[in-house]
Each structure stands twice: as structure tokens, then as C-alpha cells.
């Protein structure tokens, strides 16, 4: 199929989308819920704050009694109680009475404002106010943040540090989230060796994909484990079969270069359903995928940069969506500093260094050249309907950072 | 000191910077080096690729012999060898000879180009070419990516997935990185209880800071552990002393509201050097910090949103720099959808929802209102020299995502 017609990026994405799977959920303690995705809605069990709360250290008073107080015309109040954090007063404040109050403590009965300590001077059991306060001043009203019983977060919410705080305030010590997909990365390629400082044998190449693709899986909220297989049909078949039984997603690298003659794609075709092979994108044309044992198998190129691009185009979105999170490229417009040729009918993802206003693509674009990815912080994306851009044209840019889980 | 004069954001930052500490380094396996920071320079032990490498599956040939070949005028070559991945041929190619070659294999002696399988047809031991190739076509030249002996990454480089691939290619299976700071978070406040769905006692508040601040520490590349202390001088003193002996940074929450009368600041003042107390920022004015046992102690407000803001203003940068990484706000300009009042002499960090072009700040800005942080994805920053903005003004925006490790 690679030879007859390449899928467009859109066609390929749509085929994959039809086989999108969603992870089941699990309950984790709140301390482990950071950067997970809610699989349940969060309803608050409490008002927050649970009572009218002092927002300052100072004196709880009746605001009306302070009206007119100033540096030149201070007013004197009687201190009738003193409450620290975590304590409520059982006194009720009367006219010209004050209660010492700490930040976070409940406003006592009768009071409706807090005057900050800065504007007071304590003399024995009296306090002298050199400023007035308005009703409600320095008071965080009950339920200002959250109303008891209200739904405060919906399912599929991504839990940042602030959602974590909100969920805690609502009363949850544990929470239901989507499970993290477990991804098996199968590295094929007889020529590959682990990193070594020793001289390499003839034809040997260091296997860098195991590190970079694992890290990309991690950057997609998932968990990666790496295995190896030699380029024989039986070894690759056994590795893929076993992986599809034990993992949620399988990624292979290598052996996708040209046609169904390649071992990896032959295996997928024999033991599962091939979805596609060959996509009209650059880099990354030599991409295939299929479903084996009801499990998505992404077959990436062995070329490092092509594999990274294929991850960004296909696997990242799939892994995000498995966890209930959508993923679209966050495209921003930049002015291209260079001319960029492209080809109608092909989508290009061009390694680029972009700053606040400009994009300058990296000129050395060999699909094996990792250096070009290191020098880049973004892609310029050239749609299949565009033939490229002139210097000075506004182009579509996606920052790598914006794709991170 | 809080009462007499507040530090400006700049003054406070500068005081903290003077006590910036840098973590020592450690050697970790490459599989654990993702999102760490290099403490050594990386010099390549290999050329990459280590030889002239085929970028395609096809036939290695002498480009000159193919000149003129086309669909209508195909040329026939003799196949003299066949090499798979990880294998080198010991044959030398002569005129009109071809060697079957796999992606990644070394170009055989005599050959200078690869013709893709697509443009060929094999008949017995001959191959018919329906296209010509230019010298170097489909060949990734030796050392194209990395030159043996060259320095390819400098110390303090942040290791993304692509740097990980490059370091592997250079021959490293382990790498020297800055240690992760270990941060002890001490939650003070007698009124605080762990999240519960049961009715709260009078004056009790759920402790959400332990979760959100831990997550922020994690978002700064560091490791967090949480402890509790009651609001007594001795208990806080013991907790801080112990933490400064065992951890790289200490963060407290609570007890910073107004003056040195607060327990946390009193403790820091007694057992260490207070650097500052009270900063002219909003939210987060009630911030203090000091050095105890040669260890930075950040004293945050107990108010959740104030504590988050204080983290972003002070602790985040400190933790990044400890690990060899600089941190500056990545400011972008957006059009404000609302009028924003501010005060000369105070720096405001206003919770905001920003999209591609506009910023709309959240109106409910109480410093305890976590909801406002949940609704926000960015801050509008109003410099101390500005008195606020009118609707339609361009304002400085920092996205939360841009601050993540």
C-alpha cells in the first residue's frame, strides 16, 4: 500500500482516531493525583471557607463603630477576647468592642469586619484604632470559594497544582483518575548497540531511540518500557504478540522504510489489522500502524528524527486521548526568516528555532540528524495545500514545550 | 520590619539571589536523565553516523552510471551483493553494478548513491532502474550529525528527549547531572485538618497547601516531603531546625501574616538570618524568608493563592537555579479585556485567563480563593511603576505552563 498511495496526514489521523481507546479509571491518593486526569466529577462536601473568615491578623469589630476613626481622630475599643488560628470565640461583640483575631479564624458573632493590626495600638485591655473599616473588609465570606454540594470540577479535567488544592478543599483525600497507559517500545534493528565509548563495529549504530522515545512517552503522561528484537519475522512477531497482551500500546522502531516487505509491517499484517503504511508527511513518511490483539501498534521509522516526528503526529495525541485529554497543536503565527520550499500534497514539520516574533528553520534536515532537533524548539508546519513560504511570510509554528503533558 | 517598609519585588529577589545555592552533581544512567540538567559537557566519542549510511531501502550504485535512466529509458544493473541492516558488504561496486542495501547500512566501496526500491524492478540477478540519482542522494554522510571529539552539549543544558538521543549517540550510557533539591514543606496552622468528607469542627479548615505546594515543587524539578507543626514557637523551631539539617530547601506555610510577632518569622529570626519580611506584591505581601543552617527557608502565607503566588515569585526561580537552570518569566503581550486598577509601588500578579490575543482577568481575587487559580491559565503582571491598565491596553502576560520545569 505504501507504493500505491500515501495517506494524507488527515486520512492517517482519522484512521487512527477510529481505533482510539480510553483507559479505565483507578482511585489514587490525592498526593499522587498531580498531572492525572479526573475520571469523576468533583462535588464539594464543604463550604470554603466554611465560615466567615478573617483575611488578616488584627481586631474583629463592628465596622459602623469605626466610622470616622483616623490618625488625627483615633477611636478606642474594649478588647473582650483573643482568638488564635483554629479557635472560635464564644463571645458576641457589642458596641465599641473588639476581639483579637488571627488570619483564618472565624469572625465572632456581632462583628462584620477586621481592622489590620498595623492600624491599631494596644494599651492594656483597650485598642486604639487610627483608621476606619467598611463592612466586610478583611473578611473572606463563608462559601466564597466553593459552595457545599456544588460540582466544582468535571470529569476529564487535567489536575494541575491548583486543581489539587481545590479538590483537597472539597474534602477528597483520594480521587478517581484515568490509568496511565503502559507502552512497550520494541526496538528492532540488528545494527543497533547500546551507548558505548568504545569503537563501534563496522555497520553498527548506537540505539538512541530507546531513550528519546521513552522520554516522549513520559512527556505524554504514559509509562514506557523498552525491549529489543532482531529483524527476523519470528522474533518480531513474538515480541509484538507478547507486548500486545501485556501493554496498552506498542511502539516499534525500525523496519518500516519502504514496503510491506519490511518485517515489522509484515508481522502486523499477519497477526492483526494494518490501518495504514506510508503517510505523506516529511519527515516521517515511513510510518505504519495497525491493531493487534485489540491493541494499537505504532510502527515508527528507525531514523531518530523521523521517529520523533511520527510520535508527535500520531502517538502523542493517541496517548493523551487514552487518558481523557484532548490534544491539538497549539499553533502560533511567526514571521519566517528564511524561504521554505515544500511540496503540494505533503505536510511538512520543519525543525525550527522560534523566538517571540520570528521563526528560523534549521537547514540541515536529514531525518537522522538528531542535532537538528536539539537546535530546534518548535516545528513550522506546512499544510499539504501549501507549496512553501517566502522569507517574511507568516507561518504556523508549534512549540515543543506546548506539546508536553 | 514588615511594618516599617516593604521590600519591592526586585529588592526581595535580589536579597534571595545573594544566597542562591547550587546543588552538587551526581551520575545517573541515561534512562534517568530526562528533564535533568547537565553538570558536565558532552564530547562525542563517535562520528554520527559512523559511516556513510543509506537513508533508504534500495540499491547502492555509482550515481554516474544511472544518469539518463527514466521510465521510458530504463537502465539495467547487475546485483553483486545484498546487505541487510547491521551488515557491511566486502564487495566493491564496479560500473553498472548494484548492491541491495537496507536503510542504515554502510554504503559499499565504490558506490556514492542509493536509488530507492520504488524506482527499481528486480529480475533475477539484475535490477532495472527507471530513474537516475545524483551523487550523495539517499546517503547520510559520515559525521553529518556529530563529529567525533567535538563538544556537542555544554554544562547546564536541560535534557529534553532530543538531547537524550544526542547524548546516547555520543556514546554515554550515564551522565553527570545536578542533583534534585529535596524540599521540606512544613505546614503550620492549628486550624488545619486533612481532607475529609465529614463535617468540619468549628474554625477548622482543610489543608490544601500541602498538595498544591508539593505539586509546585515537583513542577520545579525538585522533590517534596510534607510535615506539620503546631503554631508554637518550640514546635516550629524544632521542625525548621531539623528540616534545615536534612533538606536542601525548607518551605513553611502559615504564620507570616503581619509582623515579627508571628511564630514562623520569630523562629527564623532567632535561629538564623532573616533576609526579608513583607514584600510589596499582591497577592503574597505576607512573605518572609531567611537562612537557617546555611539553608534557605521560604515562609509562605497560609492563604492558598498567596502561597502559590509567593512560590511563583520566589521559590520557583530559586529551585530552578539550584539545578543549574535559569528562570525568567516568559512574558507575552495580550490585549486586556477589562480595566485593571493597581497601585504605584506594588507589583500585581493578577490571575487571568488568556487566549491567543486577549487576557481577561478573574474578578474574584481574594487571596484564599483557589477557584480563581483554577479558572486562570496565566498572570497579568503589573509593574510597580504602573498604576494599572484600561480596557484594550496591551498587558504583560505569563502563562502558567511556561513556568513548568
From TrEMBL, chains A, B:
Pathway: Cofactor biosynthesis; molybdopterin biosynthesis. Residues 184-321 form the MoaB/Mog domain. It holds the Pfam family MoeA_C. GO terms for molecular function: molybdopterin molybdotransferase activity. Keywords: Molybdenum cofactor biosynthesis, Transferase. GO terms for cellular component: cytoplasm. Its EC number is 2.10.1.1. GO terms for biological process: Mo-molybdopterin cofactor biosynthetic process. This is Molybdopterin molybdenumtransferase. It comes from Methanobrevibacter woesei. The lineage of its organism: Archaea, Methanobacteriati, Methanobacteriota, Methanomada group, Methanobacteria.
